[in-house]
C-alpha cells in the first residue's frame, strides 16, 4: 500500500486578541497616554535612578505575581458559571467566556439578569464590584 496516513493534531480554538496601539502591534509605547493611564506604577520611572532599585524590583515582582494570579483566575473561570456582584445591589449570573486584553470587558453567555436572560453579552468590568465562582 502506497497510502500514508497522516495523524493530525486535534484543533484548538484560538482567541484573537486586539492589536496593540502601534501599527506593527509590537507592544505599548511607555510614553503613550494609554500606557500611562493603564500601567501606572507607584514609583515614577523618571525618579527610578534616585529610588532604591531594590524597592523598584520588589514592586515589579509584587505586580507580576498579582497579574499572574489574576490571569490564572480568569483562565480558571472559563466555561464556568460566575456570579457577578454589580452596583445598585444587582447580582447576575452567566457562563464566563473571555476577557479583552485590557480587562475592560467580560464576554459571557446565558446572562441571567433580574429582567431576563441574554444569550450572549459583554459586561463592562468597571460595572463589577466582585465576582465569585466554584472552583
From TrEMBL:
InterPro entries, alphabetized: SMN_gemin7, SUZ-C
Signal peptide interval: none
Gene3D superfamilies linked to this entry: 2.30.30.100
Domain SUZ-C: 1-32
GO biological process, one term: spliceosomal snRNP assembly
Protein name as annotated: Gem-associated protein 7
Pfam families: Gemin7
GO cellular component: SMN-Sm protein complex
PROSITE patterns: SUZ_C
Amino acid at each position: 500500500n502506497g497510502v500514508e496516513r497522516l495523524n493530525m493534531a486535534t484543533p484548538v480554538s484560538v482567541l484573537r486578541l486586539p492589536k496593540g496601539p502601534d501599527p506593527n502591534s509590537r507592544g505599548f509605547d511607555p510614553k503613550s497616554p494609554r500606557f500611562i493611564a493603564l500601567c501606572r506604577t507607584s514609583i515614577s520611572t523618571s525618579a527610578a535612578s534616585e529610588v532604591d532599585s531594590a524597592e523598584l524590583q520588589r514592586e515589579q515582582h509584587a505586580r507580576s505575581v498579582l497579574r499572574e494570579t489574576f490571569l490564572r483566575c480568569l483562565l480558571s473561570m472559563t466555561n464556568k458559571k460566575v456570579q457577578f456582584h454589580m452596583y445598585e445591589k444587582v447580582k447576575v449570573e452567566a457562563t464566563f467566556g473571555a476577557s479583552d486584553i485590557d480587562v475592560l470587558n467580560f464576554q459571557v453567555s446565558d446572562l441571567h439578569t433580574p429582567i431576563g436572560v441574554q444569550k450572549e453579552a459583554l459586561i463592562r468590568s468597571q460595572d463589577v464590584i466582585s465576582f465569585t465562582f466554584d472552583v
